[in-house]
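>> Question from a student workshop board

For tomorrow's exercise we were told to take the sequence and the ligand below, predict the bound structure, and bring the output to class. My setup keeps failing. Could a helper post the expected result so I can at least see what it should look like? The ligand is flavin-adenine dinucleotide.
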Amino acid sequence: MDPISLKPFNSFHVEAYTSRLVHVHHEEELPGVLTAIADDPYLILGGGSNMLFVNNFPGWIVRMAIPGIQIEEDNEDFAIVSAGAGVVWHDLVQFALQHDLGGLENLSLIPGTVGAAPIQNIGAYGVEVADVFHRLRGYDCRDRQFHFFDKEGCHFGYRDSIFKRKLRTDFFITKVWFKLSKAPHALKLNYGSLNEALAKEGITHPTIRQVSEMVGKVRVSKLPDPSQIGNAGSFFKNPELPREAAVELLAHHPNLPNWPMPSGQIKVSAAWMIEQAGWKGKVVGNTGTYQHHALVLVNHGNATGNEIWEHAQRIIGSVEHQFGVRLEPEVNVIR
Ligand SMILES: Cc1cc2nc3c(=O)[nH]c(=O)nc-3n(C[C@H](O)[C@H](O)[C@H](O)COP(=O)(O)OP(=O)(O)OC[C@H]3O[C@@H](n4cnc5c(N)ncnc54)[C@H](O)[C@@H]3O)c2cc1C
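>> Workshop helper replied:
Here is what the output should look like for this input. Compare the format with yours to find the bug.
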């Protein structure tokens, strides 16, 4: 069997090969796909915008391509909208804007698919998918049954959910339902850079479209476009530290941006520590750290997955040495 290149299927644009690639367009195809896979290794793929292939993948890549966006319920206050796992996330955002439905505007232009959005509870500019999530359906390859999950069942956290933990690799998300608002006062505008951008344009009472446009402008100014420079957005998560550890760290580094979490832990800025450790904008061979955003690792053209992973490890080591904090990848590293 000829090897299949995964370069077109990952936003880092690194070369990696697999022997089998299957595209799933209907959820009813999944039981048959799982039977064909039998005991071989497999990996669920959406848009590949949160993945780093360090090696070739020795098995099946199952690419979720289920289409379709629908308004399922509509009343005076809100609408329930469903979308297939393969729908491009920003297409769903645009659908919501076209129908005057609020809640997704702060999440404009996040790359990837609807099916992957609950996996790491995607978030940006003060909003997370959990804020608008209603329920999802998917196929569990352990009992070979379809199951629904409501919001509580998903155990959403910061860039986290049950699908990254207990159900990692076992559960294929096929469809997601969102509860979107018709109330204009439901806008979330208190995130620093979004707030500043709106104020700069003199917009005091923005529409959801204006919020989406502004988020787009801020994103374009800070993040590299994967079609030009290979990347997977933020490579690392912001570490969440126990209160005592954070207080001690902040005593030594009072300028370190930090945010108290509902859990009592304190989240500290990974970008700040990476920048202080001298990595922002640094080019190392074919890889490096983006000049406008210290959390974003980039492929300057011909980097291999392994080169990017080695760069990530150098950053992890140097931040740990300087701050005593171990960074964890947000990106799914496939080794
Ligand atoms: C330029 C750039 C900016 C970004 N900005 C943000 C941001 O602001 N906020 C943010 O949260 N993320 C951001 N990301 C990361 C990325 O967009 C999200 O993680 C996105 O949800 C990944 O979607 P995907 O379809 O590409 O998933 P993939 O990368 O294909 O997969 C990600 C994970 O989800 C699993 N998976 C995918 N689809 C399914 C499914 N249907 N069922 C079960 N498991 C599945 C995969 O196995 C893998 O573990 C950014 C990425 C880039 C490149």
